[in-house]
Each structure stands twice: as C-alpha cells, then as structure tokens.
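Let us work through a complete example step by step.
Step 1: write down the sequence.
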Amino acid sequence: MIRINLLPVKAAQRKEKLKGQLFVLALVLIVVAALCGSAYMFQLNRLQEAQAQIDQKRFEISKLMKTIGEVNQFKKRQQELRAKLDVMEQLEDARSGPVHVLDELYKAMPEKLWLTSFSESGGNAKIEGIGLNEETVAMFMRNLDTSEYFSNVELQVTQQSVQEGNKFQRFSLVAKTRTQKPDVNVEAAPQQRQSRGT
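Step 2: predict the structure and record it as tokens.
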C-alpha cells in the first residue's frame, strides 16, 4: 500500500486560506478606513461651512450694531434739536406775549374809556383807568373776559369822580394774563370791534 503524505498539501491549503482571509481583512480595513476618512472629510467640510456662516453672521451683526449705534445717535441728536427748538419757541412766545397782551387790551377798550396805568407781573395784571360811566367799565370787563389773553377779570375799585364839571367813573381791576399764543378766532375780531363802537 502506498502512503501519500498530505500534510504539506493541507499546510499549503491552510496558507492559501489564511492569505485569502488576510486579504479580505485588509480589504475590509481599507474600505472601513476609506469610509471613515470620507465621513471625517464630510464632517470637516460641514464644520468649515458652519464656521464660515458663523463668521458671516458675526460680520453682519457687527455692521447692524454699528448702524443701530448711528440710529441711536441720530435719535439723540434729534431729541436735543427738538428740545432746543421748543426752548426757542417758548422764548419767542414769551417775547411776543406782552405785545399780544397789549394789543388785546387795546381791542377790549370801548370808546370813552381811557387807561391811566397798566402793570403785569407773573401772569397777574392790574389795570386802572377812567370810563364815562359804569356801563362802559362793565363792557370793558366783558371784552377782557372774552379775550384769549385775559381771564378771571375782577373789579377792585370803582368810584365816581368829577373833572371840569364832567362825571367820570374811576376804576381799578385785576386779571390773569396768558402770554402763550392762543388759537385765534378770526370771526371774533369784528364782533369785538363792533362792541367797541357801541
């Protein structure tokens, strides 16, 4: 009987099998490494894009903050300018106020009534004068009461006096004055002028 030693064939087959397994293992490792590398590169790319977007947004925010700062500065300047304009308007009203008060005082005077003194301080006016009679003085007081520049007109003193044989009514009254510009009623002016003539 012939004996054949199969050990070297089995060893060779095992070697070949082992080589095949090592090759498959190496191939799997290469594929896994390639997949991991591509996944890493993909994530790195996404991270870089996200960082670029963050940088862009930060740049835009800084621009917006600068614009907001300029707008706030503009608003502050606008408020300062508005405050200055208000002060100028108040000064203008205060400057023209006495002129309007005196003009309104003249318009309120009926015929045959003369003023001997007028003083105004802190919104309080004292008026003294002479009228033909009590009705003339009462008409003057009514005209002042309807004026936009006078209010709370009160008669303090009235007494009859005689000058060169003519009887007159001396009077003294007080009133509150308004120096700011009122809403002018254009239709009221002719009626006041008519009441002066009567």
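Step 3: interpret the result. The domain at 92-181+188-197 is CATH 3.30.1360.100 (Gyrase A; domain 2).
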